[in-house]
Amino acid sequence: MSKVLHGRQPLTVDQVREISIHIGVPLHLLRFGARRDDDPTKRRDFGKAVMLTALAGVALPKRPDVDETRAATLTSITGAQRRLEAVTPARELARPAVAQVDLASRVLGRASRSPHADKIRAGLSEAAGFAAWVHADMQDTGSAHLYYRRAVDSARQANHALLAAYMIGSLAAFEIDADDPLIGLNLLARARREIGEQPPAIARAWLSSLEALGHATARDEAAALQALSAAEAAVRAGERAVAPPWPWVFPFDHAKLAGYRALVMVRLKRPAEAVAAFNESLSSAQPGAKPAPRQELPPIVFRAVVRRRAFVRRASSRHSDLGGSWFASLCPAIAACRRRPPC
């Protein structure tokens, strides 16, 4: 105590507490602690304990389980985006497409062990495939490859052979459009192996059309014409189908096949047959309807003319069917041309 009186040592908290008890002065009046509580630390701990005890009896909200409707909802959103693609610039669809992939990934993360996981993986595959298409449309080949691979992987993990073949075929179309037909044809062979021996008619028609395009790009005329014949037979076989099977959104009909034939003929440098296919694609689109203006040729034909416009300009002087006035009438549409999904 003498050291405290001479200022050599301060009082400890226990000593102050004992003094306050002996002299009858509350500890808070000595500016130690709070009123009616000698130890503020213990009071805080006690308050926390009371709060936790109260919360223990309250049912906290649980994250909702993923049910059977979640996959269908994801698919419907992506399907709406795919339909909007025909009338919406790719740059406006890029962010929603990527957001849809992220959303599907988060849903799958919560449902990876549920009985609905495979359907959600299929929805993720479709979303990734659409994101790949949009980025390819913007000439972002790196992102397009990334999303195509994710689409293929998710489809395989979902054990959905038709979807996997569709995504591999879409990647093949991307490679062929980039003037790399050998890679594209190899991918198409993989897609056929993936799809099995009895694929639906629309799958056979689409894959054969892509093969024709790949062979034409590789300058193999005989193989291209043979593939077109196989595609035509598949289209006839699928005419009775009421609606295309998922993941196809649009039917693969004679008008669409004629568009592919036109593109094949352009790449084979057969302008007269290309124009005939152009006209067939227009007349087959809506039988009995008035012919559409030439500015409304199928987008796949627009792309063919854009990619081969130098060839068309040269051919216009040699073939009356490709007259200069006809090419001039296409210029506004060519200027607004964008890539379109095959189906």
Sum this structure up briefly:
About 12% of the residues have low confidence.
Q: What order do the helices and strands come in, and which of them pair?
A:
Blueprint (H helix, E strand, L loop, with lengths): L1 H4 L7 H11 L16 H17 L12 H16 L5 H22 L5 H21 L3 H17 L3 H17 L3 H15 L5 H17 L3 H17 L16 H14 L3 H15 L13 H9 L1 H8 L7 H12 L8
Helix pairs in contact: 4-5, 4-6, 5-6, 6-7, 6-8, 7-8, 8-9, 8-10, 9-10, 10-11, 10-12, 11-12, 12-13, 12-14
Give the tally of β-strands: 0
The succession of helices and strands, N to C, reads HHHHHHHHHHHHHHHH
Structural class: mainly alpha
What overall geometry do the principal axes of the alpha carbons give? elongated
Key descriptive features of the protein:
mainly alpha; 0% strand; 343 residues
Question: Could you explain the architecture of this structure?
Answer:
The chain has 343 residues and is mainly α. The protein contains 16 helices and no strands. It has helices at residues 2-5, 13-23, 40-56, 69-84, 90-111, 117-137, 141-157, 161-177, 181-195, 201-217, 221-237, 254-267, 271-285, 299-307, 309-316, 324-335. Helix 8 runs parallel beside helix 10 and helix 10 (201-217) packs antiparallel against helix 11 (221-237). The chain is elongated and about 115 Å long. The relative contact order is 0.06.
